[in-house]
Write a structure and sequence with these properties.
Layout lengths: L2 H34 L6 H13 L3 H14 L6 H14 L3 H14 L6 H13 L13 H14 L6 H28 L3 H14 L6 H14 L3 H14 L5 H9 L6
Helix pairs in contact: 2-3, 2-4, 3-4, 4-5, 5-6, 6-7, 6-8, 7-8, 8-9, 9-10, 10-11, 10-12
């Protein structure tokens, strides 16, 4: 093969080697150029920075970016997303009073938003997470939590959050029932039978089938008997025998009423 025949082939090989490198460099330049087109002080730039900070769990800084979008660019296409992200960041920080307010505001301003079921669930959870760990403290917020869990269950039954809403609602109701039972027992142990009866009746009416019925029926029957309301006593004793025929409380109540189980 002549020298002149080799030269074009070598030239072609060099071109094939350098072509991928040129493409990589071009792609990098294009990527850098596209990033530079987003002004970091624009709504989109601030929002994207907030997302980065949230991803890195720098929640306070992320919240500031999302608030900046909301305050400086109220009509931007990313402002609604920033408002929701702000609520999410508060929730992740465990700043539940703040997330409660933020989710409620979002819900009021954007009632038709595609993620409104999620927003409603998170609003309920913000109330739920503020409930005290023990029943002897204030449970006022529990009703708010139940209200929004109910909204998920009834208005968005196909939501992926519906099942958890049902479970959480049951948990809240159990807390409330436990508190009612706690107060009723307080009166019962001190032989304040009239007050105890009222509390046990409320427990049976408002929180049935949560695990309190058997003992509440017995103590309602016992309290009513002690204050001379024998018709009520018989009513609750009959319900105890009907619904819990193997209950250990039947013998105790029968002993109070007499050996034959009658007053």
């Amino acid at each position: 093969m002549t020298r002149s025949a080799k030269i074009p082939r070598l030239s072609l090989m060099k071109k094939n080697l350098f072509l991928p490198l040129i493409l990589v460099i071009s792609h990098s330049l294009i990527s850098c150029s596209s990033k530079e087109t987003v002004d970091p002080n624009s709504a989109e730039g601030l929002y994207n920075r907030g997302l980065e900070l949230e991803k890195n769990e720098r929640y306070e800084e992320a919240a500031e970016k999302f608030k900046e979008v909301r305050n400086k660019f109220p009509y931007s296409k990313v402002t609604t997303d920033a408002e929701l992200k702000l609520a999410d960041v508060y929730y992740k920080q465990e700043a539940f009073p703040e997330s409660q307010v933020a989710y409620q505001s979002f819900k009021d301003l954007h009632p038709k938003h595609p993620s409104i079921d999620y927003v409603t669930f998170q609003l309920a959870m913000s109330y739920y997470m503020q409930l005290p760990p023990t029943i002897d403290r204030d449970l006022t917020l529990s009703q708010k939590a139940i209200t929004y869990f109910d909204e998920i269950i009834t208005s968005y039954p196909n939501s992926k959050h519906a099942k958890e809403a049902k479970d959480k609602k049951q948990d809240v109701r159990t807390k409330l029932a436990s508190k009612e039972d706690y107060i009723a027992d307080f009166y019962f142990k001190r032989e304040k039978y009239e007050s105890a009866l009222g509390r046990y009746e409320d427990l049976l009416e408002d929180f049935p089938n949560l695990g309190f019925d058997e003992r509440a029926l017995f103590r309602a029957a016992y309290s009513a008997h002690k204050i001379g309301q024998l018709d009520k006593s018989n009513k609750y004793f009959s319900r105890l025998k009907e619904k819990h025929p193997k209950s250990e409380f039947i013998k105790q109540m029968a002993k109070l009423k007499g050996s034959d189980g009658k007053h």
